[in-house]
Design goal:
about 500 residues, mainly alpha, two-stranded antiparallel sheet, 2 strands
Length: about 500
Amino acid sequence: MDFPILSTIIFLPLLGALFIFISNKKNESSSAIYISIFTSMANLLLTFFLWYSFDKSFAGFQFIEEKNWISGLIKFKLGIDGISILFIVLTAFITPICIVSCIISVKKRLNEFLIAILILETFMIGVFCSLDLIIFYLFFEAGLIPMFLIIGIWGGPRKIYSAYKFFLFTLLGSVLMLAAIIFIYWAVGTTDYTEIYKLKIAKEYQYLLWLAFFSSFAVKTPMWPVHTWLPDAHVEAPTAGSVILAAILLKMAGYGFLRFSLGMFPIASEFFTPLVFALSIIAIIYTSLVALMQDDMKKLIAYSSVAHMGFVTLGIFTFNKQGIEGSMFQMISHGIISAALFLCVGVLYDRTGSRMIKSFGGVVNYLPNFSLIFIIFVLGALGLPGTTGFIGEFLVLLGAFKINYLVAILASTGVVLCAAYMLWMAKRVVFGNTNNTIVTKLKDINYLEATILIALCLVSIIFGFYPEPLLDTMNISVNGIIQNHQNELTVNLINK
C-alpha cells in the first residue's frame, strides 16, 4: 500500500486536537465535541480498514513506513503484525467511547480535556506501530504527559498526589529502559527492531538488558509490588481517564513484554520465567484478597485489574501457543470489560456523588436497565463462559497447566477470588435493601449511556462466543515468537 496509513492513523487525532485548539472559544464546547467525535470515529474506520487489509497468512511486518531521522542515526520506522494490529483497533475503539463519556461527566475545561484525550490516542497508537526502539520509547513515555494532566486537573480531592505518584513511578521505571536502548545501539549498531531481531543480542548482555526493560514494563503493567500507583490513579482520575488507563495504557506494558522481552531477549526471558511466575501468582492472589476488602468500587476494580494483568504476564511467559494467545485475548477482554465497569461506576457517581458500595443497595428497583448491563459486565470480569473473559483466562490456565501444574493451580484460585469480590460487590450494590434515599430518586441510563455500554457488551459477548477473528489475526505472529524462542534455546544448548 503506497498510502501511509499508519502515519495517518497515528497523527490524525493530533490533527483533531490542533483543530480544537485553533477553534477554542471561551465557554463554547460544541465545535470541540464535534471535531473530537469526527476525528476519533474517522480513525476507528481507518483502523477497521487496516484490519480488513491485513494479511493474516504473512508472518512478517506489514504496511512498513521508514524515514531517516536525526542525521540518519535513527529511523522513524513503523509497521504492524498480528499482535500490534489488535491493540491499535482496541485503542481506536475505546477512544470515541472515552470522548462521549467525558461529554457527560466532565463539567469544566471540556475543550482541553478533549485535546488531552486525542493527543493521548496519538501516543498510544504510536507505541503499537513503532519498529524502532527510540521511537517506541518516545511514544511510550510521551503518553505520561496527557495522562498526568487528566488526573492532575480533572481528578478528585487527592488528584495532585495521585498524578505525581503515577508520573514518578512510571517515569523512573523507564529510565533503565532508556539506558538499555542506548547500550543496544552501542552493541548492535542500530535501534531498528527488525535488524536487532535478525542480528541477535549476545547472551552475556541479555540478562541485564532484560531486567532494564522489565523495570519499565513491570511498573506499567503493573506487577506486584510496584502496583500501588494504580489504585490511587484510578480513584482520583475522572471516568474517561480511568477507562483509557485500564483499557489501553496497561496493555502497552503487556505488548512490550511480547514484542521486546521475548523478541530480543529469549534466553534471558527463559531464565527469569520463575521470577515472573512468582510475581504473577502473588499479584493474582494478593490483590484479589485486597479487592475483597474494598468499599470504593473504583478501587475494587483497580485491584482486580492488577489481578487480571497477573494472568497476562503468566500467560506470556509460558512460551506456548495457548498461554501467549490467552494473554493477548485477556488483554483485549480486560480492555473492554474494565472500561465498561469504570463507566458503570461513573454512571452511579455522576448521579449520587459517591462510589462507596455502602451508599447503594437495591439499585435494580430504580435503574433496571443499568443493573442488567452492570451484572453482565460483572459476570464477564469473573470469566463467565460466553464472554471474552472466559476465553482469555481459559487459554492462559491451559498454557500454564502444560508447563507447571502448581503454577496453574495457584493461578486458578484467582478465578474463585474474582467471583467472590465481583459477585459480593454486585449483591451489595444492585440487590438488597436501599441504603440511601438518593437512590430512590435516580433515573435510569439515558440513550447515550446505553449506547456506549451496549456496544461494549456486544463486543464482549460476540468475541466470547466467536473468538476466531482475534485468534486468527494473532496466530502467525504468536507462532513466530514461539519459534524464535525455541531456536534461540536450541542454539544456546548446542553452544554449551
